[in-house]
Amino acid sequence: MKRLIRVAFLLVALGFGAWAVASQWDAVRSGFARLSWPSLVLSLLVVVAALGGGMMTWRSLLADLGSPLPPRPAAKVFFVGQLGKYIPGSLWPVLAQMEMGRELGVPRPRSAAAFFLTMPVQLGSGLLVSAVTLLAARPGAAAPYAWMFLLIPVLAVAFEPRVVNAVIGFGLRRLGREPLERPLTRRGMLTALGWALLGWAAYGLHLAAIVNQLGPSGASAVVFSVGAFALSWCLGIMTFVVPAGAGVREVAMVAVLAPLMDRGSAIAAALCSRVVIILGDLVCAGAAGLAARRGTPTGDDAGNDAIPGKAV
């Protein structure tokens, strides 16, 4: 039964991902026609690296909360679960991660805490990266989004482990759940932030590989691309009801790229970025699933010893 549910989840997620591409296919096709194969391959490779940074951000938080998963099973839980972001509604990824994590001995509240902590970590680091890079590349381009950057000090306070632990504890008490066995530490939070920053750098290089083919090139364009992607992602994540920020992120990206390139090229860059990221999600989910299957112990080797730090 669990296998059937998992297959159905994957099929639905893939269906919505395909719809996101097909709905804009003409524009996507014209954009890809202007890109060279080396730039597309480079863009996909750094997207995979960026997605890996996101996985390590989540894994660091989960380990700090008391469930240190080995890389292979952690990658499977994260990447397969993340396909749920293409399904309308904001809870599918966390539900998938909670169920797959439970099979590895991770308590559901801990999985949920790691998931919901990953969001503000990525949001805060993304806003910081976008503020620094946009101001460095084109100071005037950041002015329309100054209101977003006001959230940075608020999120900085929220990253204080004592604040985070108090909020998590309050939420669990309201839900009638037991408190987390291990509180979040400052070291764990800083490790997660470090991985998130590396992820943003890779995402920016992904967009730069596309922008350099459709508009201006050079170091300034690369730096600007990092900020443009981070800011558009932050705008997209605030629309929880839209699958993976579909549409919102592209509109925001076109607006942010306006000082760098003409509107037609900006639209092509945004749509090509969307397709490359979908491909990256599929590559990571598929590779993680295969790697986890090869690394799955059999016979007497199966059991709690397969997952260091497994919680019962």
Itemize the secondary structure elements and their pairings.
Blueprint: H1 2-22, H2 25-33, H3 37-64, H4 71-82, H5 92-103, H6 108-137, H7 146-149, H8 151-158, H9 161-174, H10 186-214, H11 219-237, H12 248-257, H13 263-294
Helix pairs in contact: 2-13, 3-4, 3-6, 3-10, 3-13, 4-5, 4-13, 5-6, 6-8, 6-10, 6-11, 10-11, 10-13, 11-12, 12-13
Q: What composes the largest sheet?
A: none
Q: Total strand count, please?
A: 0
Distance between the termini: 23 Å
- Radius of gyration, in Å, reads 20 Å
| Portion of residues within helices | over 70%
How many helices? The count is 13
What does this structure look like?
- InterPro entries: L-PG_synthase/AglD.
- Pfam families: LPG_synthase_TM.
- It comes from Planobispora takensis.
- It is found in: Cell membrane.
- It is a single chain.
- This protein is globular.
- Residues 241-245 and 297-312 have low confidence and may be disordered.
- With 312 residues, it is mainly alpha-helical.
- The protein has one domain.
- The chain is built from 13 helices and no strands.
